[in-house]
User: Fold this.
Amino acid sequence: MTGFSLLLRGGLVADGTGAPLAARDVAVVGRRIALVEPGSVVASDEVADVSGLVIAPGFIDAHTHSDTSALAGAEGELDTEQVYAAVRQGVTVEVAGNCGSSAFPGTFSGLAALGRAHAAVGRANHLVSLVGHGSLRAAVVGHEARAATETEVARMAEVLDEALAAGAVGLSTGLIYTPGTYANTAEVTALARVAAQHRKPYVTHLRDEMSGVEGALAEAVAIARDSGAALHVSHHKTAGKYAWGRTETTLATLTGLRASGMDVTCDVYPYTAGSTALAAMLPPWAHDGGPARLLARLRDPEQRALMATAISEGVPGWENTVGNGGWDRISVACARRHRHYQGRTIADLAADRAVDPVELVAELLVAEDGDVSIISHSMREDDVRRVLAVPFSMIGSDGVPKRGLPHPRWAGTFSRVLGHYSREAGLFGIAEAVRKMTGATAARFGLAGRGVLRDGAHADLVVFDPALVADRATFEDPLAAPDGVRMVVVGGSVVVRDGEVLAARPGRVLAC
Ligand SMILES: [Zn+2]
Assistant:
């Protein structure tokens, strides 16, 4: 046996299937791996003693918004810490294109064009992408608040079909975001049918994750059932005071569906706070016609008053985050021209200025051209734990790489699940935690040869110290690298060693 470039010797393998940890040596041969009996005499360019450490398949982040982060990094619009926060915690594949928003159609013509752009700047890890329904709708229908015509639905189906044939991993919706929220159930079902034909999943940010979560889940289930597509619920949560505790019922529903033979899964991030765009706090009609129209309405006192009324009284069919919580639970994460606002709540900022919160929000959005992200402290710990613990949940960061004080989940999710929820809280053992980050995710998104350590698998690996692995990223220091991640290998090349990102850029945009 020759030709090994790297031999990891003396470690415990968590193979990604959930099987108990086993003492095996792992060798890298080109871009693939071979499992070796411990202590066998084999020749290798590099031999790393990983005694006491766990060797796992590289983590697959089931849910990111990092579609163009590496490109923004190359343009100097993002810092390297933001671009590489995922790979530094062991993520070797990022699943992008979530919540209805993908880089194509729109910014790029398709997956291949996105792949060429990434190849030109280089990636440390791999990226795969869903096709965003909102991106399809923006390209075909535009930003009007109306149902799509039959012709438009057919055109969206055509573009989706081409993208899935080209290797995108499924269809995603973001039914709280415009323009996706303007779609009715029938439109989404027609598109999910295309995903089903490709045996790819329907992945959804539900129309409501707060007081109306059961109804929104019922819509998603109906779409999956009527289309024949597998259902994957994104960042499952029951947020806002009216929905706290309701994961008991939503998870029971999903468990029942699985028992009846439906292919249903979800992803989850290990925090009680969410993060999204500040503009998503406004009612859907405020966005009718697109971003420029939104800004025009925000400048109009009468329209602002209508928005304030909609938020305080609600709009049928609209989630209304603020109505479910309050401006005191929402803090500014990233606002380029208002750094002094970052980390402070909207309620606090408005009180300081003695203005109505909606007035402050309008002024801020106008001054920032609509680009402000927020952190919403909207969940309860028992709900987060319940979703983490079910066997059909997998780990996704929902990371949004941005300058400012973004949510720490982008840099801390995987080490937090391993350190805090597995080792400290005992929610599950290491083997199961690893399965939720690897084998389960690869199976969901059809990533052949990844997620499970077996002979011939792709050489995407992470080596971590099970006694030390822990997240360091916080709301004050959101990009801090985790403790205990010793080595990350992508496509047979070492890309991270002891927390440091090396020069190798073996990552690609994968077609699946
Ligand atoms: Zn989402």
